Amino acid sequence: MLNVLEFFRNLPKKKCSQCGHDMHEKADCYGNLCDECDHPAR
C-alpha cells in the first residue's frame, strides 16, 4: 500500500485554468486561478 505522504508528494502541480502556469498552492485554497489572474485589479 502506498504511503499517504508519498501519494500527495507525487501529485502533479496545480495549473491555473486561465493562463496555464503552475500555481503556488495554499493550504486552504480550492480555487483554480493563479494570484495574477485572480488579482482584483484585472
Please report which band the strand proportion falls in: under 5%, 5-15%, 15-25%, 25-35%, 35-45% or over 45%: under 5%
Q: Major β-sheet, in short? A: none
Give me the secondary-structure category: little secondary structure
Radius of gyration over C-alpha positions, nearest whole angstrom: 13 Å
Descriptive overview:
- With 42 residues, this protein is mostly loops.
- The protein has one helix and no strands.
- The radius of gyration is 13 Å and the shape is elongated.
- The mean pLDDT is 85.
Element layout with pairings:
Blueprint: H1 4-9
Features:
42 residues, little secondary structure, 1 helix, 14% helix, 0% strand, elongated
In a nutshell, what does this entry contain?
Helix content is 14%, strand content 0%. With 42 residues, the chain is low in regular secondary structure. It holds the Pfam family YhfH.
